[in-house]
Amino acid sequence: MKLEFELVPDGCWYSNLRSLLPPGGWDIIRKKAYARAGGRCMICGAEVRLEAHERWSYDERNAVQKLEDVIAVCRKCHAVIHIGRTQLTGGEREAEAHFMKVNGCSYADYRRALGEANEAHRRRNRVGEWKLDLSVLKELL
Q1: How far apart, in whole angstroms, are the C-alpha atoms of residue 63 and residue 134?
Q2: Where are any strands of DSSP class E within 1-74?
Q3: Which of 9, 47, 79, 82 is 20 to 30 Å from the Cα of 125, by its Cα?
Q4: What are residue 73's DSSP bridge partners?
Q5: Mean pLDDT in the chain?
Q6: CA angle 73, 76, 79 (to 5 degrees)
Q7: Distance between CA atoms of residues 63 and 97, nearest Å
Q8: ∠ Cα 23 25 29 (to 5°)
Q9: What is the DSSP string of 69-120?
């Protein structure tokens, strides 16, 4: 799937670059992501105002949350990626439609992918404390 849900473990909710970098660092990284995107969402290709999204991976065995990249996405793709927040704010129907359009899939596929994302979220929430790996920052700055 081109567009996937990225449910962040509850214990990692405040591990975002904006709060971890020195002043001005986040602006440098997000502007580089926008430049790489060439004015288009890096997931669906829409030519709209872009938002920066942090891509993380999770090594559950070693309890490591690793920053993989910062990409430029449209508001609709960002709403899908952060479906938990989107559900809380009442935007799930729009996100659901966007997920199916971008991925060319059915409602059943949407529900299956959401179920898998929720299961990964539950599993990752059982990890005690996550360590951060920000080694990719040297490439992003």
Answers
A1: 14
A2: 51-59, 64-73
A3: 79
A4: 51
A5: 95
A6: 90
A7: 34
A8: 155
A9: EEEEE-HHHHHHHTHHHHHHTT-HHHHHHHHHHHHT--HHHHHHHHHHHHHH
DSSP letter assigned to residue 4: -
Q: How far apart are CA 133 and CA 141, in angstroms?
A: 15
Please write the tens of the pLDDT for every residue from 8-53. 999 888 777 888 888 899 999 999 999 999 999 999 999 999 999 9
Q: Under a CB-based contact definition with an 8 Å cutoff, are residues 50 and 34 in contact?
A: yes
CB atoms within 10 A of CB 105: 15
Rounded Cα–Cα distance for residues 97 and 105 (Å):
10
Q: What pLDDT digit, counting tens, does each position of 54-108 carry? A: 999 999 999 999 999 999 999 999 999 999 999 999 999 999 999 999 999 999 9
Per DSSP, the three-state class of 57 is strand
**Percent of the chain's residues with pLDDT above 90:** 87
Point out which residues pair with 133 in neighbouring strands. Answer: 66
* Distance, CA of 71 to CA of 69 (rounded, Å): 6
